[in-house]
Design a protein that fits this description.
By secondary structure, this protein is mostly helical. The protein has three helices and no strands.
Length: 145
């Protein structure tokens, strides 16, 4: 049986990213010339509705409109990358913190769990040969005469 990773961290990351993206995009749209703002906002709305493209060199799946000159296209791309980074970093920080807490709680609980046989009684730990019930070694002493 194959073991698969839980999906909740990815879902939490995407939820936090989409939640933070709205404010980030609105703030970065103000850095663009007025004629580019509607395309910028629509691009992120479309990306959020249809899934964000995440990966190296991507900025949420938003690209400059076709036919845009090099200078404005670069400003558009930079604003998109910055908006994505502004939303992604806090989302990733939150997600990684939650995952770390879950792992720490799980590890702490695992140390507290005692194995019990089917009858419900604590399992007897076998004593090493030559050990007493108190856990100290029994030394061979000559009996007094």
């Amino acid at each position: 049986m194959a073991c698969s990773a839980p999906r909740w961290p990815a879902r939490l990351l995407q939820h936090r990213l989409v939640a933070g993206l709205h404010a980030s995009v609105a703030a970065r749209a103000g850095d663009l010339p007025p004629e580019l703002r509607p395309a910028f906002l629509r691009g992120f709305e479309r990306a959020a509705a249809h899934g964000l493209n995440l990966g190296a060199g991507q900025h949420g799946g938003v690209s400059p409109p076709a036919g845009l000159a090099a200078g404005p296209a670069q400003r558009f791309s930079t604003a998109a990358a910055d908006a994505f980074a502004d939303a992604f970093l806090p989302a990733a920080r939150t997600t990684l913190t939650v995952v770390a807490v879950v792992l720490l709680v799980t590890a702490a609980l695992a140390t507290l769990v005692r194995r019990r046989p089917a009858g419900g009684e604590p399992a007897q730990v076998p004593q090493p040969v030559g050990a007493s019930a108190a856990g100290t070694a029994v030394l061979d002493r000559p009996e007094p005469h």
